[in-house]
Structure formats: C-alpha cells, structure tokens
C-alpha cells in the first residue's frame, strides 16, 4: 500500500535525520539532506511542487495544488557545533483548498540528536523560547509582563517542539524567517492542540510568492489571548 502524505513526511524527516547524524562533521549536511529528500519526493510524489531552503525557488509552485515545504537541515549553525542537539529536519505539505485557499495538511519535525523524556507539566513561570542568536527586542518585556523566563535555543523546529513536549510554554519570534522554517513546526504544533499564528494573532499563510514571514507565535492555547 502506498504511503499516505503523513507517513511520507514522517519517514522522510526520520530518515534524513539519521543520515545527518551519520555524516555530521564529515560533509555538507544541508546539501546531503536536500539531495536525499529531493530524490525521495521525485520518486514518490513526482507531480508535486517543492519549496526548499536548499533549492532554487520554482515559482510554478504558485499554481500547483500540492507543495512540499521543506527545510532539510534547520539549525545549520547548531548542527556544526559538536554536542548541540537543537537542530531539526522539517517536512510539510501544503494543499490548495476551495476558493484558492491553502492549508498545511501534513508535516513532521524530527530532532535527530535530541533524546526526548516524558512531557513536562507547566511550571509556575511561563517559559518562552527565543532565538539564541537574535531574540526579539520586545521578548524580555513580554516575559517581564508575564513573570516569565526567556529560554534561548537554536533551530525553529527545536523551539516549537519544546512547546509541544511541554518543556516550554511559548515560542516567540520576530525579525523574519522563511516558510520552510515554520511550516512543519506549525503543522505539528497545531496537531498537538497548540496555538500558532503571527505575533499579533493574524493567520499564517504559506506558498506565497515571497516566502518571507515576519514573525511567529506558538503557545499553549490559554496563553494565546495574552501573547497574541
């Protein structure tokens, strides 16, 4: 039986992660991961379009009904640093719906170097994960207003999955990112019952002509009204 889109997304993310672990420190992980995923999609979903960080943007995707949005290695800086676990593989599928709208319909995020423990209950102080290299200027003000803590971390996927696992309560990002940075994390977060939007509460849109996204908020639902 052919793989469903969800099964394919999970397998590609998992197998790419294993490949990246094997070649870590011995090659161009971004290119190796891109080549593997591109070959798999060409074999298993030859009629679908692809938007990837590591490939030229073919704008024919704008008229396609199905577009895979991938980041073969999210957190290249962390991947290059021995011992760091906050890097990820993102694989997501966007599909055109009625009235030309589109939605994310499948997705997977894998953190190949992370060893997941049991889910953590919410703490007394909200934990807000932010970029370890370029946290939003207003993030500290938000944390102070909530009596919360800022938790610096790499990869967008790692930050989103920290919220999914209960290790953090919110992921706040501003200053820009691309669709491939957030598509798979947003799908997984929503599937886990979390809120995902722009930081002002506006909806996220994917497969746009310009794949640049200004900001992102992923959080526990009860924090959405406070943060968005």
Walkthrough of the structure:
The protein is of the alpha/beta class. It folds into two domains: 106 residues, Fructose-1,6-Bisphosphatase, Chain A, domain 1 (2-Layer Sandwich), CATH 3.30.540.10; 101 residues, D-Maltodextrin-Binding Protein, domain 2 (3-Layer(aba) Sandwich), CATH 3.40.190. The protein has seven helices and nine strands; from the N terminus they run H-H-E-E-H-E-E-E-H-E-H-E-H-E-E-H. It has a five-stranded mixed β-sheet with strand order 6-5-7-9-8, sandwiched between helices. Helix 1 runs antiparallel to helix 2 and helix 5 packs parallel to helix 6. It starts with a helix and ends with a helix.
Short key terms for the protein model shown above:
Fructose-1,6-Bisphosphatase, Chain A, domain 1; alpha/beta; 228 residues; D-Maltodextrin-Binding Protein, domain 2; globular; 2 domains; 27% strand; four-stranded mixed sheet
């Amino acid at each position: 039986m052919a793989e469903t889109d969800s099964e394919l997304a999970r397998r590609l993310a998992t197998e790419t992660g294993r490949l990246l672990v094997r070649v870590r420190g011995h090659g161009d992980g971004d290119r190796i991961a891109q080549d593997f995923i591109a070959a798999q999609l060409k074999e298993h979903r030859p009629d679908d379009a692809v938007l990837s960080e590591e490939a030229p943007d073919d704008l024919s995707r704008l008229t396609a009904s199905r577009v895979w949005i991938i980041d073969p290695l999210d957190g290249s800086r962390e991947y290059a640093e021995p011992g760091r676990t906050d890097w990820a593989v993102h694989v997501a599928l966007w599909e055109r719906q009625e009235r030309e709208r589109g939605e994310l319909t499948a997705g997977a995020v894998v953190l190949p170097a992370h060893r997941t423990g049991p889910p953590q209950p919410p703490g007394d102080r909200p934990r807000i994960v932010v970029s370890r290299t370029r946290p939003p200027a207003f993030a500290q003000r938000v944390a102070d207003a909530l009596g919360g803590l800022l938790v610096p971390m790499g990869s967008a996927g790692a930050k989103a999955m920290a919220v999914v696992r209960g290790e953090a309560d919110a992921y706040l990002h501003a200053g820009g990112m691309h669709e491939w940075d957030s598509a798979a994390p947003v799908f997984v977060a929503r599937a886990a019952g979390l809120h995902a939007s722009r930081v002002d509460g506006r909806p996220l849109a994917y497969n746009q002509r310009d794949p640049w996204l200004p900001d992102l908020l992923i959080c526990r639902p009860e924090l959405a009204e406070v943060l968005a």
